Amino acid sequence: MSFETVSVIGLGYIGLPTAAMFASRKKKVIGVDVNQHAVDTINRGEIHIVEPELDIIVHAAVTEGYLKATTKPEPADAFLIAVPTPFKSNSDNENGIPEPDLTYIEAAAKAIATVLKKGDLVILESTSPVGATEQMAEWLKEARSDLSFPQDNNIEPDVNVAHCPERVLPGHVVRELVENDRVIGGMTLKCSEAAIKLYKTFVKGDCVTTNARTAEMAKLTENSCRDVQIAFANELSIICDKLDIDVWELISIANRHPRINILQPGPGVGGHCIAVDPWFIVSKTPSEARIIHTARKVNDAKPGWVLNKVKLALANYLLDHKDKVASEVIIACYGVAFKPDIDDLRESPALNIVVELQKVHSGPLFIVEPNITTLPENLEIKSKLVSTKEALIHADIHVMLVDHKEFKKGDVSFLNKKYLVDCKGIWENSFVD
Ligand SMILES: NC(=O)c1ccc[n+]([C@@H]2O[C@H](COP(=O)([O-])OP(=O)(O)OC[C@H]3O[C@@H](n4cnc5c(N)ncnc54)[C@H](O)[C@@H]3O)[C@@H](O)[C@H]2O)c1
Fold it and tell me: Of 81, 88, 147, 396, which shows the fewest CB atoms inside 10 Å?
């Protein structure tokens, strides 16, 4: 079993760094993506995503001839699938539980099936619901009845199949790909052995072996655990608001207990992982996954709660300023990314709050987001991208949504606390009561 040629299907935030890592270890890498723009960019030795250090590695890999990108799969010894696994957009069933969308995995599996040969290894890296790897192996088998697969109960199948989920942190992907422990979920032990051999090309962390279903559940469990913990903090923030208690002070006191570690509340939960993956558990086991389901609902409801706090601040402002009408009141929102110090707006609760605010507020909206240079199209209607200074000086109501490092500097104690909604507790506490 030797892996001289490796193919990575899906060259996004996960697939491109993975492809680059194999290429940097002098494997011949064929990157496949349906996005022609991504393929062309990579073949110029450039990158189409934001990830520190990746540009240098990709540039070297392409110019030295170890990495090329294409839109059509070519034969290789190992295939790693890193395509999106969202939930279906209009799939709310009668329980209101979104279903996972496996169509990207199906399309990728059917595409590589045409070039599969005896001795190949196929790894599903995409975050997947339990059973997706077995389903993928079925799609491969349907397309290639001339080859044997692990589900055929053949001790030495022609094609090995495994699920090896990715757990890297955006912004630290190059280091974490190498250093993190890797979950290796082979459909059989032999499949796991093959996958370990492949990953040991660059992985320095431990390769922890299990079966495919446990590997799938491990990734979903990690993200659901974070979601539940954040929901606890978000629920506390709402309880404390009602009881007139400072939630930030409360959490810092409680965390002095040696076995307590409460996370920080915020405007909700965003990103394409924590806000999505728990649904993969809930949709499979709706009656059993009660805490996980409730956590999703608590976190999804938080933006609406924040919106109501902004409406209350506006009402207070208008009560205090009888000479003004709502259309003259400037509301400034600080941060629209889904977490601090990144430019990624995907599934961002802060962005949702601003979009909803735009619908209900008749006056101007100032957006302060130091990590972007232009506003998304749906925000351009009424909103203006401004500097922190301009917003602090000219806005009447201030909504702190994301604790970017830029917002933690400077004095904001001159703001009127009645007209401030601070979802991250970084400004509220600059006031002396
Ligand atoms: N981004 C993260 O931080 C992260 C972390 C852990 C796990 N994951 C998981 O990894 C998977 C990929 O996520 P991502 O962030 O890299 O997504 P992404 O959207 O950045 O990249 C996916 C790429 O796949 C391509 N693609 C779609 N269908 C294809 C097909 N049939 N054939 C070839 N290419 C195809 C898209 O054009 C895109 O370039 C998802 O399951 C995600 O949940 C992501």
Answer: 88
Phi and psi, residue 352, nearest 5°: -60, -40
Residue with tokens 């100032």: 366
- Cβ atoms of 318 and 377 within 8 Å: the answer is no
Secondary structure, 3-state, 243-259? HCCCHHHHHHHHCCCCC
Pocket of ligand 1 (CB under 6 A): 9-15, 32-35, 38, 82-85, 104, 107-108, 111, 126-127, 166, 168, 170, 272-273
d(CA 412, CA 430): 7
Beta bridge partners, 28, equal 5
Q: Are residues 54 and 178 in the same domain?
A: yes
Cβ neighbours, 10 Å, residue 51? 19
| Domain-located, residue 189 | yes
Ligand 1 mean position, distance from CA 403 (Å): 27
Supply the Cα-derived Rg of the chain in whole angstroms.
24
Residues 54-79 have pLDDT tens digits of 999 999 999 999 999 999 999 999 99
CA 85 to ligand 1 centroid distance, Å: 7
- Does residue 286 sit in helix, strand or coil? coil
Query: Which among 208, 209, 203, 207 is positioned nearest to 189, based on CA atoms?
Result: 209
Containing structural domain, residue 277: 224-430
Q: Which of 57, 159, 137 is nearest to 49 (CA)?
A: 57
Residue 355 domain-assigned?
yes
Q: Please report where in the chains the tokens 């969202």 appear, as a residue.
A: 86
Measured CA to CA, the distance from residue 246 to residue 400 in angstroms comes to 16
The tokens for 370 are 């130091």
Write out pLDDT tens, residues 256-286.
999 999 999 999 998 889 999 999 999 999 9
Phi, psi of 269 (to 5 degrees): -130, 135
Which amino acid appears at position 400 of this protein? M
pLDDT tier at 92 (50, 70, 90 boundaries)? low
- Give the total number of structural domains in the chain: 2
**CB atoms < 10 A from the CB of 129, how many?**
21
pLDDT digits (tens, 9 = 90+) for 188-205: 999 999 999 999 999 999
Element (H, E) at 68: strand 67-70
